[in-house]
Design brief:
By secondary structure, the chain is of the alpha/beta class. It is built from seven helices and 14 strands. The protein has a single domain, classed as 4-Layer Sandwich (Metallo-beta-lactamase, Chain A). Helices cover about 25% and strands about 30% of the residues. The two termini are about 30 Å apart. The protein binds zinc ion (ZN) (2 copies). One zinc ion binds next to loops.
Length: about 220
């Protein structure tokens, strides 16, 4: 299994492609901009995209997701608490002064819940509902591969902001405590922005975790 990272304009959000070579299956996380060269390559290399998943509904993670849902003829998995963000994309774009951006086509949405599991080849991903940055933020976690996609909940040595509409600092604390109580130290973290990290590194070096109840933290 391999994780590809594509950094998107204009806010350097990370689009991830998880590919499993043996089964030729793939998963796309946070398809914020349409990358035609990526899509063409996946088709040429005979990958079957099994799911399109959004960690949350902010425009930098979902703006052009509709082009993926159209091309791959499947819905975008998004927690229902964040559906209003996608349905009111223009409001979001205005909030960030990005009124020159506009989705060509809106994505079909599929409700993502904690009971859903994604399977790519032999790899299973669990869904953790982790509100705080937004009401419908989720983490995708593969205990077997020891990797997690944390969206804008957790970054390398930082955390997501909670001052946007729908943000909730108390929920953020609770989500971080749940995350760190579940994920083993060696888990690799692929955040919504910035470089990869690990649970162990964050326990040692993330200043935003200091006041939280986190086992093994400093
Ligand atoms: Zn966000
Ligand atoms: Zn973001």
């Amino acid at each position: 299994m391999r994780v590809e990272t594509h950094v998107l304009e204009p806010f350097a959000s990370n689009l991830y492609v998880v590919v499993e070579e043996a089964s030729r299956e793939a998963l796309i996380v946070d398809p914020g901009r349409f990358l035609s060269s990526l899509v063409e390559r996946l088709v040429r290399e005979a990958y079957r995209v099994k799911a399109l998943v959004a960690t949350h509904g902010h425009f930098d993670h979902v703006l052009e997701a509709g082009e993926y849902t159209t091309f791959f003829r499947q819905g975008l998995w998004l927690h229902q608490n964040d559906w209003p963000l996608v349905e009111n994309m223009r409001t979001q774009l205005e909030l960030f002064g990005m009124t020159d951006l506009e989705p060509l086509v809106y994505p079909n949405l599929t409700a993502l819940t904690e009971s859903h599991k994604f399977r790519i080849g032999g790899v299973e991903f669990l869904v953790l509902h982790t509100p705080g940055h937004s009401p419908g933020s989720v983490v995708l976690w593969s205990p077997g591969e020891k990797i997690a996609f944390t969206g804008d909940l957790l970054f390398r040595e930082s955390i997501g902001r909670t001052d946007l509409p729908g943000g909730d600092p108390a929920a953020m604390r609770a989500s971080l405590e749940v995350l760190f109580s579940m994920l083993p130290d060696e888990t690799r973290i692929f955040p919504g922005h910035g470089p990869e990290t690990t649970v162990a590194h964050e326990k040692q070096h993330n200043p935003f975790l200091r006041d939280l109840l986190i086992p093994g933290g400093s």
